[in-house]
Amino acid sequence: MNVAHSVVAEKTSRVFEVLLATAKPESLMAGKLLGVGAAGLTQMAVWIAAVLLLSASALGAELGQGGLAAYGITPLQLVFFTLYFLLGFFFYSALSAGFGATVSQESEVQQFSMILVMPQLVGILLMVYILGNPSAWPVVLLSLFPPCTPIVMCLRMSAMVVPWWQLALSVVLMVAATYGVIWLASRIYRVGILMYGKRPTLPEMIRWLSYS
Fold it and tell me: Model-level pTM?
C-alpha cells in the first residue's frame, strides 16, 4: 500500500509529467517498486534486529543448544520463506502501483485495498484447517494459486514435508504470475499515470493495454 500511496502522491503533484520527459513509464514503475520496497525491507530489518537484541540472551542460549531446529525451523524453510516473501512483495506491489495509477487522490487508494488483502486473508482465516490438513487437495490447490502461495505454502511446510514437485511448481507459477502482473501493471501504469478526474472502469483499463 505504501507503493500505491507513493504513486498517487507523485501523480497529484504532477511530478510524473516532468519525469516522463526523460524516462520510460516502465522504468519509473520499476524504480518505484525497488525504492519503496527497499525502504520497507530496511524498516522490517531494523524491527527484527531490535527484537533479536532485546531477546539476545534467551535466544542465544536456545540457538546454542539446538540451533534453528530448536524452533522447528529448517534451512529449506528459510530459503523458501525468503523466496516467497520477495515474489509476493513484487506481485502485490506491482498490483498496487497499477491500481494507484488509476486514481487521482490518496483517499481513493482504500477503495481497492480489499482486492489486495483478500487473497492473503484466505490463508490466515483457514490457518487452522491448513495446519490440520496440509495434504488435502483443496489446500494443495490453494498453495499453488499464486496470490495465496506465499502464506499457504509456508503454512504447509511448517506442518509437513511438502513434495519437491509441488514446491518447484509453486515457484514456477509464482514467478510467471509475478512477471504477468508486472507486465500488465506497467501498461496500465503508463496510461493511467497521466489520467486525471473520473476513475476508469475495468473495460477502459482493458483498452489501455491495447494503447501501449
Answer: 0.75
